[in-house]
Amino acid sequence: MNALKITTRDAGTGPVLEVAGDLDYLNAGQFRDLLPTVTLRPGQRLVVDLGALDFCDSSGITALIAAHHHAQSAGGQLVLAAVPANTLRVLSIVGLDQVLTIHPDSEAATRV
Amino acid sequence: MMARAGQHSDPHDADDDKTAQAAFAALLEDSAEDLYESAPCGYLSTLMDGTIAKINSTLLDWLGLARQDVVGRLRFTDLLTVGGKLYHETHFAPLLRMQGQINGIALEIKQADGGRMPVLVSSVVKHGTTGEPLLIRTTVFDARDRRAYEEELLRRQRLAEEARRQAEADRARLQDTFAVLQQSLLPDTLPELPGAEAAAHYHTASPDRLGGDFYDVFPLDGKRFGFFLGDVCGKGPQAAALTSLTRYTLRAAALHDPDPVSALTTLNKVLHERYSASGDPRYCTAVFGTIDPDPAAGRLTVHLASGGHPPAVVLRADGTATYLPTPGGLLVGVLPTAPFTAASTTLGPGDTLLLYTDGLTEARTGKDRTSLYGDEALLAFAATQAGRPPHAVIEALDGLLAGFGDGLDDDTALLAIGVPSSDDPTSETR
């Protein structure tokens, strides 16, 4: 069990959320509560960097879907970066790899 | 008396000393009688038979009696309650006679206004010059505060005990409720399939939490049957509510239009409107399908569609196991329109279709429980069961799940549908 730690920074393309630890039933709420505080202007990208993600369950997936909806309603786009292999596998089984934009790392994700 | 060491006395110090000594002397002149009468405890002296010879004002005040009514007229035991009198006779007096003294005995004295006052009593026998017992000197301490304190302790202990019992009962009731609710989300029995067999199992990871997996097999029309198996996001009562909605929506949608992609599309619309549209995205993954049995030909046709669910496994009578791929189907309920991928297969004698939830493939295994059981391992295990009837496949998987122990984090639902092989003894009874 790893606590969730989210670091926020800004890139030219928009806000970047670096997620470390477990994104699961117990602390996915923490991520979802943070979303409304992240300003996204139309046309910007909300990058979620999962390079330090240890574990993601169905509640974690729901949190990513919530981020997708938040980005869309702000006129922006959710981009996932550095998705770990296990999570990538789950995303492809549930078909979210067709809906969400996924980049290999945040450098690629924040490239204009 | 303070002694100032190592200092030369000056005229002011000498005056302070005199004042202190004068005050001290005043205290010493406090008469012994006053010390006795107004002591903070009760004093009592009695003859050996208990007749009160001397009593102080403090005790008389507690008793609410006048001295002339007590001295020479009452015995010590007359001051006690019935219980105290009994205790005095059976314990107090004999011990005092034997030991010559007795300390800190809790008794109650009767007050003139009808009240009872809890006290602590100590007595000592005074002996004469020749050693014979002369009289008994008794001290009586006010134990009201102590009694109140003891009673408060007992009361709190009783409350804590009661609270603990209540918590235990609540927990048991909650677990019972969960068990009942869990049962209501799953079918009690699976229907009889002509020329085919269905078997299912639900493995709970935790008895304290309502799981989010579901499955069902039900008749569609006179000939075909519908089936589904899936997994809702999250855990607990919210997930259970979603499970219930999903189950009954799929059953109703199937009766209206049994095409698997249509049924999932309807479910998607219902869930999206109920949850995502109101800002609380919830989803499920599911496989929905129809079974068309052909008992005369000894086979059945399966048409299914998957919404973001792991692919079903087909176990063949020839000992092989393969996935029935349904890539690209999206999980159900999060987007207003979603693609679902269809697939079909025909099962012959000895073939079984296995559906499962990811509690199975996500189970943590290995010596340090860090690697996941995974898709390849499941396929390899399934191959060892290929050719066996559905109930045997389910039993074997149940054994596998039990073997995972605490490596199982999530509930697992299993559903197997198959055609008995021609040499299967159970095929005669179906």
Describe, in short, the structure shown.
Chain A is α/β, with parallel strands linked by helices.
Give the arrangement of secondary structure elements.
The complex is a heterodimer of chains A (112) and B (430).
Chain A: E1 5-11, E2 14-23, H1 28-34, E3 45-56, H2 58-73, E4 77-81, H3 85-93, E5 101-103, H4 106-109
Parallel strand pairs in A: 2-3, 3-4, 4-5
Antiparallel strand pairs in A: 1-2
Chain B: H1 11-28, H2 32-37, E1 42-47, E2 52-55, H3 57-63, H4 67-70, H5 82-99, E3 101-110, E4 116-127, E5 133-142, H6 144-184, E6 197-203, E7 213-219, E8 225-232, H7 236-256, H8 260-274, E9 284-294, E10 299-307, E11 312-315, E12 321-324, E13 341-347, E14 352-356, E15 364-365, E16 371-372, H9 374-385, H10 390-404, E17 412-418
Antiparallel strand pairs in B: 1-2, 1-5, 3-4, 4-5, 6-17, 7-8, 8-9, 9-10, 10-13, 11-12, 11-14, 14-17, 15-16
Helix pairs in contact in B: 7-8
In percent terms, what proportion of residues of chain A is strand? 25-35%
Structural class of chain B: alpha+beta
CATH H-tier superfamily of the largest domain in chain B: PPM-type phosphatase domain
Structural class of chain A: alpha/beta
CATH architecture of the largest domain in chain B: 4-Layer Sandwich
Count of strand segments of chain A: 5
Count of domains of chain B: 2
What is the number of E strands of chain B? Answer: 17
| Largest beta-sheet characterization of chain A | 5 strands, mixed
Largest sheet of chain B: 5 strands, antiparallel
CA-atom Rg of chain A in angstroms: 13 Å
- Kindly provide the name of the CATH class of the largest domain in chain B: Alpha Beta
Helical residue percent band of chain A: 25-40%
Give the CA-CA distance, first to last residue of chain A.
36 Å
